[in-house]
Specification:
Elements lengths: L4 H11 L12 E5 L16 E3 L6 E7 L2 E8 L11 E5 L9 E9 L7 E5 L8 E4 L5 E4 L2 E2 L11 E8 L7 E6 L2 E7 L12 E4 L15 E9 L5 H9 L18 H13 L23 H13 L4
Antiparallel strand pairs: 1-15, 2-5, 3-4, 4-15, 5-14, 6-11, 6-15, 7-8, 7-14, 8-9, 9-10, 11-12, 12-13
Helix pairs in contact: 1-3, 3-4
């Protein structure tokens, strides 16, 4: 029986709203799950803007690593470049130009063993960008070809690109495919300062300079942006569980959201900051992944608590 229900709610409400202390480390600043929307699930982030010259982009249901999920299909033509499709995000209010991480779950639908653009930070005015290359490896062109894992058509992959200030004026860039490191290089190619408003392009290739036409249709199931470089350990952990547990409020994993989970949640709520050494590793009670366990997470917890059984 959920005998603590009223007492539990009163206990948290009595604690009041804690101050919004800024968590150190990597904060999630924008998150897109493409559930029939291009809006961010993280508050304060702008919507993604579609590039859809042919009017063919749209939402669909796909099996993503064995789970039925809504995805956003980017549908255009490689040539002419005016018919390429994609997405854009204005990042200037979200992250520093040389300190961020981008996380994607997607699959390409065309052009295997050819150049396929993933991310561009030059407003489509340069061939320098983050690609899958003709060997089907990740590459920051033209400075860092990847090795090891391959990114093939019609297979969903988890990709992380991290940019760190590094030393001096040149950033440190790393990329991970399905949790495995693929490349590490010092370069300013992926600095967001290369484009006005830190504009980030997803999938659409350059319309000026050489190497045009390196576009593939794609289905994207997840895009998240963090305000610092993720560590190799964090990139690996995200690749294991990027959509999160199916019942995140079941904090002890017994299939129920009950009083035991509330005790765990309350302890995290009283700590607040996910960066606090006293916080449980990976901050599981931070359901909206904003770096804090506070009132917005409590709202999520109460809804699950009222249901009791995990779906």
């Amino acid at each position: 029986m959920q005998t603590m229900k009223c007492a539990a709610v009163m206990c948290v409400l009595a604690a009041g709203t804690m101050g919004a202390a800024s968590a150190s480390g990597q904060n999630l600043v924008a998150s897109y799950y493409f559930e029939d929307s291009l809006a961010s699930s993280t508050s304060g982030a702008p919507d993604l803007t579609p590039i859809d010259p042919l009017g063919l982009n749209g939402f669909a249901t796909e099996s993503v690593f064995g789970i039925a999920r809504r995805v956003y299909r980017v549908d255009g033509n490689a040539s002419p470049t005016s018919q390429q499709a994609g997405l854009t995000l204005v990042t200037e209010a979200l992250v520093a130009p040389r300190s961020y991480s981008a996380e994607l779950v997607f699959k390409f639908l065309q052009r295997q063993s050819a150049w396929r653009l993933i991310l561009d930070t030059h407003n489509r005015l340069s061939d320098s960008a983050f690609y899958a290359d003709p060997a089907n490896h990740l590459q920051v062109y033209p400075v860092a070809p990847g090795t090891g894992s391959t990114i093939l058509n019609n297979e969903y992959h988890h990709v992380v690109l991290t940019v760190d200030p590094g030393v001096g004026l040149v950033s440190s860039v790393r990329a991970y495919l399905d949790g495995v490191p693929q490349l590490s290089v010092t370069t300013d190619i992926m600095d967001l300062s290369n484009a006005p408003q830190g504009l980030l392009h997803i999938f659409a290739d350059n319309v000026q300079a050489g190497g045009q036409g390196e576009f593939s249709d794609a289905d994207i199931a997840l895009f998240r942006l963090y305000d610092a470089a993720l560590s190799p350990e964090q990139a690996f952990a995200l690749a294991q569980d990027f959509f999160g547990p199916s019942c995140p409020c079941d904090l002890n994993g017994d299939g129920l959201v009950d009083d035991t989970d509330f005790v765990i949640f309350l302890a995290a709520y009283n700590i607040l900051d996910c960066a606090d050494p006293a916080m449980e590793p990976d901050c599981p009670a931070d359901f909206n992944r904003d770096g804090l366990v506070e009132d917005s997470d409590f709202v999520v917890f109460v809804a699950a608590y009222n249901e009791l059984l995990c779906p």
